[in-house]
């Protein structure tokens, strides 16, 4: 018998079973089913009522692992109550299965812990709501593929027909239908007699049973069944349930299955196989390289949106065209571009600007983020990814209303995403150091830990006859296997890909800094001495302990530790480049922030990789001059930051562009062009490319345009000129590199997956409240009603003893009975949990009234321990 039940007597209800649990067992229940504590129930009766609601039971069943769910499914088709031996027989079969026998105590313990099963091993009961969900019915087949029992299938059958079946099966006739049905069920459960009966069956009849044995158990028959079906119907091996429909009784199916409720019991989780093993140093170096590339990608993404990014769709999100442009700019695929966009959004670095013409842009937090050390910047991205519920893998798919899901748009939140990411990385942490998992093994493990579609089975219909009732169809696929493309499996695959992109893993294996991000302990060497019975198994067959998600404080500590481990692996930023005669500059590594910013304006990036190649062009030099720098400034900058002499072609390019820069002036008329050299203006007017600008001469040195200044500037530059903008006062306007930023924005909040798991403090307080409320609800109260007591004695103690007992209860947190006389003279007995005693008053939580109240000490007649008040 489980230690959770009272040894003196078997519990008569789930409430009684929970009442016999200690505080640790109750805490385990509330931690595994946090919906039961929201809000805190007043007593155990309310807790049991809440635990039996359909929504709560469905939620609990959906979070069971495959074998625990198979155990619950077996109990749903077993007798109520069932013994441990009966349950073991349903799961292990007549021949027995050592793995099932070894795993059943754990699975049953899980069901008991979560209050889905109660009772001792001699009287196991599945809670009623779970039995209703998992029991077979024509509308909702059981995941086991079993049908109704003989008693259930014959409930509407005439007594005469029942007696005919009993006689044809070779059983003695009885005086009533109940005993006849019991006799028939006993025959089907008797392995010896049932085997003898089936030995007499025609081969064709056995084939019909074979098609129905693993479910669905229902079939279709004609009004005039074939002889092979008539033989089965006459002996009750098939029973009619409706006109034209028959069912294979549960007892018959179990005999044909060898006593097993499931075709393939899965007591042991599938191992996470190792595909390859790399040296840890190689894994860490690869992951660090990916981490640095991730930082560069996010910076490149947001730098491209410095002047205002793509427009926000009316329904929210990024258009498919803008996502494609982003992918081309980053030189990645569209799904990968969606990942980087969503990651920047989850980290609070990207948001919409909220303007009338709403566009996406970097947030002020991005500028602060850029100034942090590289390892800290990576840690912020990694933590945001680990805890975000937004799922970029869904981009491009369809929602329930057949609308396309867009990046940064609504409908991408999946509350299971953080838990799946954490679990996938925890499975990688359970592998030997440097080991990468085999493809498909991680999703397979997750499908075992949280099987999809395991509460209800597949479609209920399988013809027993084929053609128009004569051919038949093979058994349906296992309902427990679930679809290959279920959400958790897709999340697992996306997690593995995204972790590699982000540098949490390297070559598929979890890196040292990735392990620290989880708060996981350092792995033991595969050849280390085993520490326990489980460690005697091969490494990849050892159970992986679930790493609990960290609290915000613990996660902050783990993030800082991951950043410290990553920092030495990242390359140091350089303060120099190598200038070449072909108007290029080579950065042999990452550049320091000021150098990278200036060089990004002065030159265009031509190629990336281990070394970045920048190319100087007339347009890029003009761009640098537009920021207010002179030719002398650019020469000095290049000389200071180049390890090679400044090539003569580059110096000539800078001087040539600077000589022509600002020779033309553009201002607002709508726009105008002025130049001291009227020959240049004549050249512009004569150029056919200027036709679209609407130019006309106002004076020998001034042209007016119909377009705005910005369009005029771009048009003249496209014609090969180098105009400069000027202010209303005639001064040259300097185009600063100030970028467009959104107002301050906070990162999107993850969508919770149900109520949060309560912490230890809340659990302790909730258990105290439930215990005290249960005591108030179950303790004898005489003939008291509400606050008034018509009979029964009030606790009576001396004033000094009353005060001392109340003060002690404040320290211990114990509940007390008090006698209380109110201002009208009405006496009552109440159960209170004192919180504070001062100034002649006691403040306490009154479990009778379910609220906090304050009582004058002089009106309290006395106090008593709850045990002292019981009969």
From TrEMBL:
Enumerate composition-biased segments (Basic and acidic residues): 524-536
List UniProt keywords, sorted A-Z. Answer: ATP-binding, Helicase, Hydrolase, Nucleotide-binding
- What taxonomic classification does the UniProt entry list for its organism? Bacteria, Bacillati, Actinomycetota, Actinomycetes, Kitasatosporales
Give residue spans, biased composition: Gly residues.
454-466
Query: Which source organism does the UniProt entry give?
Result: Streptomyces fimbriatus
Which InterPro entries does the protein's record reference? WYL_dom, XPB/Ssl2_N
GO MF terms on file? Answer: helicase activity
The ranges of region (Disordered) come to 134-154, 436-486, 517-536
User: Residue limits of the WYL domain?
Assistant: 801-863
- The Helicase XPB/Ssl2 N-terminal domain covers 577-699
What this protein is called in its record is: Helicase C-terminal domain-containing protein
